[in-house]
Write a structure and sequence with these properties.
The complex is a heterodimer. By secondary structure, chain A is α/β, with parallel strands linked by helices. Chain A has 17 helices and 11 strands. Helices cover 38% and strands 33% of the residues of chain B. Classes of the chains: A alpha/beta, B alpha+beta. Chain A: Pfam families: HypD.
Chain lengths: 374, 107
C-alpha cells in the first residue's frame, strides 16, 4: 500500500539502525506513548535490533486498556437493557468488566453491534427511532474528533434517541503523571503521531522544558519508529530537550484547527480515572453542558457504579512502564487473550497482547523462571 | 483502535450537508467523512481514523523523509570508516594494529 510499504523498507531500516548504533554511547530509556507504536516495535523486533543501551519502555497509550473498569461496567449495564442498541468498536467486546464482557452480554440477548465509525451508530439511530442507540466513545485525541462530530450531527439533525458513553483521555496529562511518579525512569518520549495530527505540538514544549526530556513526534511504520528513536537518542547524547517532528507527512505544528474547534465545542476537560493507574487530573474529556442531553451516563442513570480491579492483574504497572508484560506472573499462564485478566491482554494495542502474539515463545514467564525444572 | 491509515480519495460528495468521500486503502474501499479536512481533493491522500479524515498526507514531505533516509546511509558509506563497517559486518571490533598495517600497506 502506498505510504505504508515504503516506510517498511529493510535496507533503509538498516541505515537508520546503523546511525542509532553509532550515536548511542550511554544507556537511555525512551517511552513510546502509543500502543500502536508498541505493536510495531514488538512485531518487527525493533527493540531487539537496537543497541543494548537503548531501552524502550512501553507507555499507557492504549485507549482500550486505560478505560476504567467502572466505565466498562456502565457499558455492560446499558448494553443489557432491552430498549438499547449498544454500538462499539470491535476491540471493546472482550475487555473484562466485573464478571462479564460485551461479548457475553450479546450472547445473553443484548443488542450489541460493532461499528467501524461512530457515524454508523448515528445511522442505526436514524433507522431505529423507537430504540435507544448508545455509542461507546472511548479513545485519545485521535478518536475524540470523530465522536465529537457524531454528537454534533445528532444535535444538528435532532436525533434524540442517540447518546454517547464518554471516556476520552488526553496524552499530555499522562506524560506529566509519568514524569512526576517517584519510580519514573523515562528520559525521553516518542509522542503519538496521530494524536499530534489532530492536536499539533503546542502542548509539548512546556513539558519538554519542565522535565528536561526530548519529545519527538513519531509515526507508526518501522522506519518512522527508527527515525523517532534516532532523533531522540541524538538529542539525549547532546544533552538537548526539544520538541521535534519526525512525522511531518501527517503532522503540522498547529494540528487540525477544524477538529480542535469541534473538540472545544463538544467536550470539556475533566479529571479521568485510568485503568490500573488511577485518577489523573484534567486527563479526560466529557460532554460540555450544551451536549449533556446526549450523555448516556446521565440518560441511563449509571453514574454511581463503583468497582475494584482483580489483584492478580499487574496491567497498571505495565501501563506505567514499570514492568514488561512477561514479568507478570499471570502472563501466558492464567492470563491469555482467550482468558484475559486485564485489558492490556485484549486490545490490539495492549502491550501484553503484543508480547503474547509475537514474543511468547521467546520469553519465559517469571513464575517458570523461579521454579526449577524437575 | 487508534490505528489511522493513509488512503487515497477516489470520489467526493455532499450527503445531508456533510462532506463525504470514497477512500481507497490499497483495494479496501470505505466511506470517509471529510468535514475536518474539507479541502481534500480527489487523488490526494489522507490519514483516516474510524471513518474520518484527520489530516492531509503531505506527499512531498513523505518523499523528503525517504530521501533523507537514503542520504543518511550514503553519507555513512561515503565518509564512514570502512574498517569499522567491515568489522561490524563480521561482528568484531577493529583493532588499531590491523588498521595501521592496512594503512601502511596502502602507502
Amino acid at each position: 500500500m502506498k505510504y505504508i510499504d515504503e516506510f517498511q523498507d529493510p535496507e533503509l531500516a538498516r541505515r537508520l539502525l546503523d546511525d542509532i548504533h553509532a550515536t548511542a554511547t550511554r544507556p537511555w530509556a525512551l517511552m513510546e506513548v502509543c500502543g500502536g507504536q508498541t505493536h510495531t516495535i514488538i512485531r518487527h523486533g525493533i527493540d531487539q535490533l537496537l543497541p543494548d543501551n537503548v531501552e524502550l519502555i512501553h507507555g499507557p497509550g492504549c485507549p482500550v486498556c486505560v478505560t476504567p473498569l467502572e466505565v466498562i461496567d456502565k457499558a455492560l449495564e446499558i448494553a443489557a437493557r432491552p430498549d438499547v442498541i449498544f454500538c462499539s468498536f470491535g476491540d471493546m467486546l472482550r475487555v473484562p468488566g466485573t464478571g462479564r464482557d460485551l461479548f457475553r452480554v450479546r450472547s445473553e440477548g443484548g443488542d450489541v453491534r460493532v461499528v467501524y465509525s461512530p457515524l454508523d451508530a448515528l445511522k442505526i439511530a436514524r433507522q431505529n427511532p423507537d430504540r435507544e442507540v448508545v455509542f461507546f466513545g472511548i479513545g485519545f485525541e485521535t478518536t475524540a474528533p470523530p465522536n465529537a462530530m457524531t454528537v454534533y450531527q445528532a444535535r444538528r439533525h435532532r436525533i434524540p434517541n442517540f447518546s454517547l458513553l464518554v471516556s476520552h483521555v488526553r496524552v499530555p496529562p499522562a506524560i506529566e503523571a509519568i514524569m512526576t511518579s517517584p519510580s519514573c525512569r523515562v528520559q525521553a518520549f516518542l509522542a503519538a503521531g496521530h494524536v499530534c495530527s489532530v492536536m499539533g505540538m503546542d502542548e509539548y514544549p512546556a513539558l519538554a522544558e519542565r522535565f528536561r526530556v526530548p519529545i519527538v513526534v513519531t509515526g507508526f511504520e518501522p522506519l518512522d519508529l527508527l527515525e523517532g528513536i534516532r532523533r531522540t537518542v541524538r538529542q539525549l547524547e547532546r544533552g538537548e530537550h526539544t520538541v521535534d517532528n519526525a512525522y511531518p507527512r501527517a503532522v503540522r505544528a498547529g494540528g487540525n484547527p477544524a477538529a480542535r474547534a469541534m473538540l472545544d465545542d463538544v467536550f470539556e476537560v475533566t479529571d479521568r480515572a485510568w485503568r490500573g493507574i488511577g485518577t489523573i487530573p484534567d486527563s479526560g474529556w466529557r460532554l460540555s453542558a450544551r451536549y449533556r442531553d446526549f450523555d448516556a451516563e446521565h440518560r441511563f442513570s449509571v453514574e454511581n457504579i463503583a468497582t475494584r480491579e482483580p489483584a492478580a492483574c499487574r496491567s497498571g504497572e505495565v501501563l506505567q512502564g514499570l514492568i514488561k508484560p512477561h514479568e507478570c506472573e499471570a502472563f501466558g499462564t492464567t492470563c491469555t487473550p482467550r482468558t484475559p485478566l486485564g485489558a492490556t491482554m485484549v486490545s490490539s494495542e495492549g502491550a501484553c497482547a503484543a508480547y503474547y502474539l509475537y514474543r511468547r515463545l521467546g520469553v519465559t514467564p517469571t513464575k517458570l523462571e523461579a521454579s526449577p525444572v524437575a | 483502535m487508534c490505528l489511522a491509515v493513509p488512503g487515497k480519495v477516489v470520489e467526493i460528495e455532499e450527503r445531508d450537508g456533510t462532506r463525504m468521500a470514497t477512500v481507497d486503502f490499497g483495494g479496501v474501499v470505505k466511506e470517509v467523512c471529510l468535514e475536518y479536512v474539507p479541502d481534500l481533493a480527489v487523488g490526494e491522500y489522507a490519514i483516516v481514523h474510524v471513518g474520518f479524515a484527520l489530516q492531509r498526507l503531505d506527499e512531498e514531505s513523505a518523499r523528503q523523509t525517504l530521501a533523507l533516509f537514503e542520504e543518511l546511509g550514503l553519507l555513512q558509506e561515503e565518509f564512514g570508516d570502512p574498517w569499522e563497517a567491515a568489522a561490524a559486518e563480521a561482528g568484531t571490533v577493529p583493532g588499531p594494529a590491523v588498521k595501521d598495517e592496512a594503512q601502511e600497506a596502502q602507502r
